[in-house]
Amino acid sequence: MINTNWASRAASLPDEDLVEIVSSGDAGGFEPHVIEAATAELGRRKLSAEAVSHLETSVGERQAARDGRAAEPLTNGAWIAFILFGPIMVVTLTIAIFFFVMGQRQKGKEALWAIFYSFLVWWVIAMVVFAAAALLS
To answer: What percent of the chain has pLDDT over 90?
Structure first.
């Protein structure tokens, strides 16, 4: 495991990030020693109550924006693109994974469903083409 000096790391973080670490705490997935280092660094910086309040508002807005992106659905055009190109797994799965990595969980889930539906659509199209070819021969 990498030994990190969290006190020096906290010293290099902007005020907004420190406030986010302290205010979200365990719910934000931060270890107790990281929260302690951020709290100590905020104490050393001696920010005014007004500045901390402003930073907390900014952190709340940033979190709300993240939450909004996480629940944002796939657009109709993206559904169509995933259904048309779904069997090209290298491209479509990469994009779906990218959605998850970027925190856009809803888009990632819908992209995976669209890939699944694309296989059904292309299977039906293939069956129709083979049936038509059999009838014509």
So the answer is: 40
